[in-house]
Design a protein that fits this description.
single chain; about 120 residues; mainly alpha
Length: about 120
Amino acid sequence: MGLLRRAEDHEKRLPLFQTVSRAVDLMRRDFARPLVIASVAEACGESLRQLQRRFHSAFSTSPQEFLIKTRVVAAASMLEETALSAAEIAQRCGFVDASSFAAQFKKRTGMTPRAYRTSHARPPK
């Protein structure tokens, strides 16, 4: 026998997860392009502030921080797997420039892109 819950409790949480899921999908798909979080909110049918609240409820972080972390993870993979320059990786991952990329990368990983590449480089196959 299962647990019974009032339908409205479940229904109250459903929009939160649907909105956040749509926003996450959009950011993961389009992280390399210039994304404005207000546009992501609009695409999800939410106001910017409502999307920020829902993200904070779901992840304890802002949509902007989620987008930056998504870009940093993609950049880290490129640093490990390619010989692309930091400027090229910055451009492919949606950062404004190499300087911004380096600052955001170091803030979140504790290492510069060069140091990360040196310590995480995979040997050629």
